[in-house]
Amino acid sequence: MATEKWVEETLEKVRKKIIVTAEKNKDKIPYRTDAQGDYDDNSEPRGDGSGLDWWTNGFWGGTLWKMYEDTGNERYAEIARISEKKLEKCFETFTGLNHDVGFMYMLTAGADYRLTGNKDSLRTLLHAANLLAGRFNPVGYIRAWNDVWGDNVGWAIIDCMMNLSLLYTASEITKDPRFSNVAKRHADTVINAFIREDGSCCHIVEFNPETGERVKSMGGQGYGEGSSWTRGQAWGLYGFVISYIHTGDKKYLETAVRIADYCRKNVPDNGIIPIDFCQPKEPALEDCCGACIMACGFIELAKQLGEEKGKEYLETGKKILKAIAEERCDYTLECDAFVQNCSAAYHSKDHNMTMNYADYFFVEGLQKLADIGSFYW
Ligand code: GLY
């Protein structure tokens, strides 16, 4: 199908800007691409997840690999490899790494291996997969975060659904099912313990780490307990599509559809996504980062469902991404980021900020609609 004009035009604006911002930021791994934010000194791992080992540090490389695929310009690959090399240092300190190694290494070493067959990248990818598998508690869940966050040994989070792609990929490469077995056990637990009757998802669930019994859920980065943090809904939606892609198991597709149906009912007409679908009307806080992830989830789900069944999901994904492209992006060189109005969490001061993963998913979503590039997850 021909690419829609607004997608073509947006991609052209992305190409014009990113060729400049990539070179400008080549020795950094921006978090807030405009201001470098709190994590500006990420040249070394700090061992507590706040320096080079900050969880979003794979998205910058991922965006550059996406642009490499789009343009064929080797410079993008060279700059992406600078951050890939840096992230290897986090293995030495180790304590800063957590369930988010999927985000960190799938889009850097993983993309490099996928696109170039680089053997060093493969080693990095498998090392990361072993670390993620090592976080699995055999009572049924992958543990979230580390002790630096408090007494959270029994915690699992919906975000981790996205990291499962690292485990599926490791099994596909090594032909050893132990990685994907861990991923499937975790995904099954999430279906039972995180997904509510109406298709919405909890952010954090605490389990008894000895028995696996569900203790309670927590509001996490959303408005409160029982609410629907939109980025969490997006991680769940896209994460279950990814589990379906790797396993072919229909229960994962059905779960993605349930989450998607819940989201569709709640996406505002103007396509601009709040931080939490249950938040009060005022202040009208937005999370355009969660919006880009949700759009990617909808678009990928539509692809898996086929033209007829997927139509409405595709329309919703496009509506959200178009709203971001036309209302919430900065294409000038005044700001290094594209997507504006992102939020760290409902109860935080960090609203209306830029985030490198918002830009990553913005580019991924546009490329999906233009049928450009590979699937990194
Ligand atoms: N995975 C953490 C977040 O989405 O903020």
Describe this structure in words.
With 377 residues, the chain is mainly α. The protein is 53% helix and 4% strand. The strands form two sheets. The chain has a three-stranded antiparallel beta sheet, with no helix packed on it. Strands 1-2 form a two-stranded antiparallel sheet. α2 packs parallel to α5, α7 packs antiparallel against α8 and α7 packs parallel to α9. The mean pLDDT is 95. The structure holds glycine. Glycine binds next to loops.
Secondary-structure element sequence?
Answer: HHHHHHEEEHHEEHHHHH
Number of strands: 5
Helicity, in percent?
40-55%
User: What structural category arises from helix and sheet content?
Assistant: mainly alpha
Looking at the structure, the CATH topology is Glycosyltransferase
Beta-strand percent range: under 5%
Specify the CATH class: Mainly Alpha
Strand line-up across the major sheet: 3-4-5
Separation, N- and C-terminal Cα atoms: 24 Å
Total helix count?
A: 13
CATH architecture tag? Alpha/alpha barrel
Q: Main beta sheet, described? A: 3 strands, antiparallel
Mean pLDDT: 95
Shape, per Cα inertia axes: globular
Structural domains: how many: 1
Bound molecules: glycine
Low-confidence stretches: none
CA-based gyration radius: 19 Å
